[in-house]
Structure formats: C-alpha cells, structure tokens
Write a structure and sequence with these properties.
It is built from 10 helices and 10 strands. By secondary structure, it is of the alpha/beta class. An 8-stranded parallel beta barrel has the order 1-2-3-4-7-8-9-10, surrounded by 5 helices. The protein has a two-stranded antiparallel sheet with strand order 5-6. Helix 3 packs across helix 5 (133-149) and helix 9 packs across helix 10.
Length: 282
C-alpha cells in the first residue's frame, strides 16, 4: 500500500517545492493538490463536507503550476491532482497541460479527476447542466485519451466534438497518465470502471471505505474489466495504525493523508508524525 499527502495549495501554505522535497525525503509516494478556480459570491450549492466552506477553497492556486514546481524540486515523488475539475476545463488545453506536466516530471503524474459539487462555480465556466456533468466529464476524458494516443486525433460526442487535430507532446506514460476518478459508491466506482485506471472514494463520505469498495468488482464486471486493474485510493485517510493496516490487508492501493494549508512550522512536524504512523503499520 502506497502513502501520499494532499493539500489545498494556497499562498499562505508551505511552498510546493518545500512540501514536495519534505514529502519525498520522508518516504511518501505521492503529493496530491486540490482545485477550485473560484468560489461564487452567491452560492447555494451545499458543501458535502459540512455547513461552512473552509477558507482554503477560496484561495487554491492552479494545480498544474503547483505540481510543476513540485516536480522540478524532486526526482521520485509522484505528483497528482486531487482532484482536477475537468468539467470546468477545455479538454484540448487540459490534454496539453497533462502531457506537458507528465513530460517535465519524467512520467510521474497521476491525473485525479472529478465532476465537483459547486453548481454555481461550474456554471461560470459554461457547464450549465448540473445533472449532466458526469456525461460531460466522461466525454472530455475520452476526448483527451484520443489526443494523447492519436496523431492526428479527433473526437465526436454529444457534448465534445472536434475534427482531426495535431497535439504534441504526447505523455511519457503510455497510453496516458493513470486516470483516478473521484466519487462515492456505487456511481464513483461505476465511472472508474468505465473509463478510469483508479477510483478515489473520499474517506468519511458514503460510509466505511471497505463497504464501498465491495461494489468495485461488480461494476468492473459490467465493463468486462478485472477489478485488480483499478487502483483504490483512500483520500482523507484515517490517522490510525490499526485502521490503516485493515485497509492494507483488504487490498487498498493507496492512502492519502490531508494536510492543512499552513506554513512549514505546522506541516513539517505533521509529516514527521505521519511518517511515524506509517512505520507503525509496517
């Protein structure tokens, strides 16, 4: 089982390069960063995590800029979006960003994606059909897969449509960086089985993680896939050695610990504490 850390990268938080180096030195496998382009001043969408939206959501930096800095400062640490809101992004531009980041990181990028919960935010990006956002996400992912694989590439869907285009560079990882689809069971597992390489159920949402992952085999079978091909990443992992051992023993691929968007004086001791917890798990 791999161990990663995640953060909302804000201007007041530890710098991406310092965090990446510290994470790599302590043996963490991956660094994941969140995305929100903005938070609408007039918002009625409820935050799934509680009543009050934390300030870090208002201040998140661009994930591709942050991860480029992290990649430049390290040699083995995997860098990841957790998650990239592809329903708010042009697929041709995003495909270029993903391929470029995978190239400059020498194939260390993990592409965590999701459709999001903030209807007003995505509406400002032109995604007006909130219930239909999952179909839009799928088509944009399929379109990006075509761009990464083909030369020239084209895609013709109901919501995404373009004639043959040239787009280079191609990603280092072939046919593309692993795509990890966020979302609770069973729908999140179904989307991961349909077009993902991994699934990210969020800890604390949708009940016990191991109860959720039980549906993955069933969903994978619907698309003729072996569930062992689909990595399961627990986002917001518990800080409890016995619980982590339970995850490991049940085949969870990766756990990701959430870090506060704070300075080095807070984050570095916490990384040390988490590294010690990992040693307890063994």
């Amino acid at each position: 089982m791999h161990y990663g850390v995640a953060i909302f990268p804000t201007g007041d938080a530890i710098s991406p390069g310092e965090l990446a180096v510290a994470s790599e030195q302590r043996g963490f496998e991956s660094l994941w960063v969140a995305e929100h382009t903005h938070i609408p001043a007039n918002r009625s969408s409820p935050w799934p995590g509680g009543d009050e939206l934390p300030q870090m959501y208002y201040e998140a930096m661009d994930p591709f800029v942050v991860l480029t800095a992290a990649a430049a400062a390290t040699t083995s640490l995997k860098i990841a979006t957790g998650i990239c809101l592809v329903i708010e992004r042009d697929p041709i531009i995003t495909a270029k960003q993903v391929a470029s980041l995978d190239l400059v990181s020498d194939g260390r990028f993990l592409f965590g994606i999701g459709a999001g919960w903030n209807a007003e935010e995505m509406a400002n990006h032109g995604t007006l059909d909130f219930p239909g956002r999952f179909k839009l996400m799928r088509e944009r992912v399929e379109a990006m897969k075509a761009i990464w694989a083909d030369d020239p590439a084209e895609y013709h869907g109901d919501l995404v449509d373009f004639d043959p285009i040239w787009s280079r560079p191609k990603p280092v990882q072939r046919p593309h960086p692993p795509i990890h689809v966020g979302g609770s069971a069973p729908q999140g597992a179904r989307r991961a089985a349909r077009y993902g390489d991994g699934w990210i159920p969020i800890g604390g949402r949708g009940g016990d993680l191991l109860d959720q992952v039980g549906c993955l085999a069933e969903e994978a079978a619907k698309f003729g896939r072996d569930p062992s091909e689909i990595e399961v990443t627990s986002y917001g992992a518990p800080r409890d050695a016995s619980e982590l051992a339970r995850y490991r023993d049940h085949g969870i691929s990766r756990v990701v610990f959430s870090l506060p968007p704070a300075g080095p004086d807070v984050v570095l001791p916490l990384l040390d504490e988490l590294a010690g917890l990992i040693d307890q798990v063994g």
